[in-house]
Description:
Layout: H1 7-40, H2 45-72, E1 73-76, E2 79-82, H3 93-120, H4 126-129, E3 159-164, E4 167-172
Antiparallel strand pairs: 1-2, 3-4
Helix pairs in contact: 1-2, 2-3
Amino acid sequence: MNGNVDEKLLKEPILYCQDNYVQNLVGTGIYNEIKAQVTAGTLTALNTTLLNDYIQPALKHWVMMESIRSLSYRYMNIGVVKKDSPNARPISESEIQTLENNHKNKAQWYAQQAQKYLCENDTDYPLYGNPGDGIDVIPPQPNQYNTSLFLGGKRGKGRTKIKCRGWDGYYRN
């Protein structure tokens, strides 16, 4: 991002991406553990690796994807406006969608690598398989790729069971 982007415009997309995408990736247990460790300044070596090598690259692209529209449009007292400048022109809706899809694909790839890392190292991350109890607990979502492309088969009917050493997860066919 350009260095002159106002940090206030990125705060909401960052918080949303953390709460939504990251929590769905790692589950509530690991998500809350990392938040608490970061706040206390006690981030473990394992969580540092997870955060730096896996979560942050995905988070960067999720934030880019989510911030494209908020950087293109402004809520003003006269209504929603599209920013314009003598030195630049706003991009079209199709260009916005192309950029969003580009960042979404990259974020999902990094998230899939994080899921593989967590599954491979599930004994080091017991909260991955046991994120906690309660209706507010979000379990990790094992399939990080979403697509609108239908390749045949029984849509939404079949599931292939995967097993990390400590828990059962599902990939959709």
